[in-house]
Amino acid sequence: MPLTLSQFIFCQTKEAFRIFEGTAEEYLPGNPAAKYLYVWKMARNCSGEVNCTEVPTGPGSYGIGLNDTAYIVFRAYNEKETAVGPSYTEIAYDRVLKFDSV
């Protein structure tokens, strides 16, 4: 299910994050840790890829200009039941791989 940039930005609930489940399986086939990881691509053109969000070039808040800096931010949320965030020693930190076209 491709997401628009605004849908991706506002993906802020535990239920909304279900779209990420299983996305690492393709890259880590047979690896038992894959179920705990996710893969998502941000691109100018997703060419129909499912786990991808297209980032338009603008104007303003609609997209990101070709010469503008893009920021990616991650955060951990409090558990609804306990109103407490995760222990920092228990978090698998997110990573970003940036690829440039040649």
Structural features, described:
The protein is 5% helix and 6% strand. The chain has one helix at 5-9; strands spanning 41-43, 52-54. Strands 1-2 form a two-stranded parallel sheet. The longest helix is centred in the first third of the chain and has 5 residues, at 5-9. The model has no long low-confidence stretch (mean pLDDT 78).
Keywords:
102 residues; little secondary structure; two-stranded parallel ribbon; 5% helix; globular
Quick structural gist:
The protein is largely without helices or strands and 102 residues long.
The proportion of residues in beta strands is 5-15%
Helix content: under 10%
Largest sheet: 2 strands, parallel
The assigned structural class equals: little secondary structure
Global morphology: globular
Poorly predicted spans: none
- The count of helical stretches stands at 1
- Overall pLDDT score: 78
Side-by-side strand order of the widest sheet: 1-2
Distance between the termini: 28 Å
| Cα-based radius of gyration, to the nearest Å | 15 Å
- Total strand segments: 2
Taken in chain order, the helices and strands follow as HEE
